[in-house]
Amino acid sequence: MKLDIVHDLQSIYRKIVDSTSRPGLISDLRKEAALVEDEETKGCTASLLLLALTLFDQEVTFKVFSAQADTVSKTINQLTYAKPTETVQADYLLILKDAAKGSLEEAIIHAKSGTLKNPHTSATIIVEVDSVTNGEALMLTGPGIQTTKPVYLDIKENWIESRQEKNKEYPLGIDLMFIDETHQLVSLPRTTQITRNGVMVEWDM
To answer: Within a domain: residue 175?
Structure first.
């Protein structure tokens, strides 16, 4: 692996923080992804592997939704020492592009949402999508957004309503990250509200 474990992963972490603090911001991981050799990914994309290398460690648990879930889980475990587990216990849920239809909605419904005392113990869902620059047009509002922010996500899943239900009891809820085939990253934290087709999809806070 040509990746500099200190310098490059710090760069990726800063991009993750930027995307999370400014929902709708597209962060470009192409430079770092180019440093990952194809034979090292073993069933997952370079950018997904980069996110795992940056965010996972031996204290983290995760669940992979994929036709190659066993292979991907083994790769991530070997590289990060994070432990695969069941959906309801996982700190991170990884929805790969070859996951069965309905996997994202299933992950949202069953993901842990934290507790009032420890809302940070909730899950983060990382989703591989075709594009974060084309697809359904969504308008974002909330913390980190000055007025409104458009985002385009090419996802063939029924996920927005499930996310709304999951996040209705703030600060409980889940955070979402989307990574596309060109290694572009978009984050949607639980505090972000979504307008879809001119209708606000929101919850009481």
So the answer is: yes
